[in-house]
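Give me the 3D structure for Auxin transporter protein 1.
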Amino acid sequence: MHDTKSICLRELARLPVVIPIWFLAIIFPFFGSINSAVGALLVSFTVYIIPALAHMLAYRKASARQNAAEKPPFFLPS
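Predicted structure for Auxin transporter protein 1 (78 residues):
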């Protein structure tokens, strides 16, 4: 496609990419504010909740806690 000299053929190849992006830009003219609101709502979830859930899933069995690189404190039951 990059070797062809025909401008019409290159433009036809680019249309399937450009038209959906253009359509989304028309639908969401204020995407920056929407993106800010979604980011504000999801930052705490991705920073605090997902790592805690991953840790609990990884060390849910006593054998996994005993084989961990850093052992749990002595006052926590394992």
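The chain has a mean pLDDT of 85. Let me know if you want a second pass.
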